[in-house]
Amino acid sequence: MALRSRRSTQPLVHHSDRGIQYCSEHYQRLHRRHGIRCSMTDGYDRYQNALAERVNGIHKGEFLLQRPADLEQARTMVRQPVDIYNAERPHLSLQCKTPDEVHRVLSP
User: Which of 18, 27, 68, 99 is placed for a possible disulfide with 73 were both Cys, Cβ 3.0 to 4.6 Å?
Assistant: First the structure.
């Protein structure tokens, strides 16, 4: 999803915790294929990965309150909070702008 919608040609870094899904060879191969630099926390410290924890909290607390009927609905349920977080929710740390607004200004 992120790779398809990405417009910038700047180097990309994916930051995650050390969950087994992120350490898997399949996932790491995906990073290499797309030229993505992988960054991981030193251990399990949720404060080192605050952005991902925030988006996961939005998923669990606001969007995954019901079981999806099928795979397409599950994809929508995963995509929707990410889109809202990036495009609609202003962030105090970004002077009340959305990440998309800041990204558009900073992208060449």
Answer: 68
